[in-house]
Each structure stands twice: as C-alpha cells, then as structure tokens.
Design brief:
single chain, alpha/beta, globular
C-alpha cells in the first residue's frame, strides 16, 4: 500500500468514528442501515436498527454470526417491550427491571436499558437497537473504540468517548412453565 492509499484509508476510518455526544449523527447512521460499534450498558456492542432486516443481515455478516444465533434487542422501557414483543408475565416484568438482565419474551431476547447515555441514544433512534458483543463470532470482545476501528475498519461506524463500567455480558433468562431458566450467566 502506498502512502496515498494509507492516508485515504486513515481518513475513511476517521470519518466512520463519531463522538458519543453526537447522538444525532449516530442515530442518522442507525436509521440509514449502518452498523455501529457502541458502548452498551454491559460491553462494547455491534448494533443496528433491530427492525431493519437488511441492517440485521449486514451485522450478522460483519460479525460472522450464524442466522440461527439469537440477537438481543435493547429497549428503553417496558412499554417498548410490549410494543415490539407483545404481552409478558409479571415475572418477566420483574426480571426486565433488573440491571444487565436480558429476558426472552415471545422468542425475542430483550433488555430494558437503565443506562442514561444508551437510553438517550435509543430515544434519538426511535427503534430498538441490536446489541451483540463487538467481536468476530467466537473471538474476544473489543475493549476500546480504537480496537473496534482496528477490528472492523470501514464496515462499521464507531462511537468513541464513553467508558463502560460494567464490562460483563448480560445475564440471559427465559421463563418456561412459570419457572425462570438461566441461559447465560
């Protein structure tokens, strides 16, 4: 690669990095069907508009995630869970209100986010966001926005400038026959 190519690649990568306080720009990227790498309430995540089938397929291809593997949706409220997933039990409601807990409701894994910045992003986007760990399928999750740029390059828009305080994946639970079953702890 010559120097001109390296400069162009670097410029392109920098153009795909947005500061966390540019919620309008991040939301526009999501609404345009782009894949983002962003700090969720748990770990760095790959995300997109969960209601945009083409964006979801692009995310799966970028990550190398099989079509059969479930994707978590982040939602801002219990009302939003009901809108996108239908009715759910009082037990599911209690679990959804626990921090960092993903609940499978009517076949969809969802988490109500209590993190202020992610809630503001969800509000600006106006749609559920996919949240899957920011890594190639089966590989370690990136720990910084710079690692995300190195890992995914121009395939994603990277959000920078936020720290992640939890740094562990969510607990995933389902409720069958009134019994809570832990899928991932």
């Amino acid at each position: 690669m010559n120097t001109t190519d390296a400069k162009q690649r670097k410029t392109t990568k920098n153009d795909r990095v947005l500061r966390h306080n540019d919620l309008t720009g991040i939301a526009a990227a999501v609404r345009a069907g782009e894949i983002i790498v962003y700090p969720t309430d748990t770990v760095w995540g790959l995300g997109c508009d969960a209601t945009n089938a083409a964006a979801v397929q692009k995310l799966r291809a970028t990550k190398g995630k099989p079509d059969t593997a479930p994707l978590i949706w982040l939602l801002p409220s219990l009302r939003a869970v009901q809108k996108y997933c239908g009715q759910f039990s009082s037990e599911a409601r209690k679990l959804l209100l626990k921090p960092h807990t993903t609940v499978v409701i009517n076949g969809q894994s969802v988490r109500v986010v209590r993190h202020g910045w992610v809630n503001r992003l969800l509000a600006r986007c106006g749609v559920p966001l996919v949240a899957t760990s920011a890594n190639r399928h089966g590989q370690p999750t990136v720990q910084t926005w710079r690692q995300a740029v190195a890992e995914f390059g121009d395939a994603v828009t990277v959000v920078r400038g936020r720290k992640i305080y939890h740094r562990a994946p969510s607990t995933v639970v389902t409720i069958k026959d009134g019994q809570t079953q832990i899928i991932r702890e």
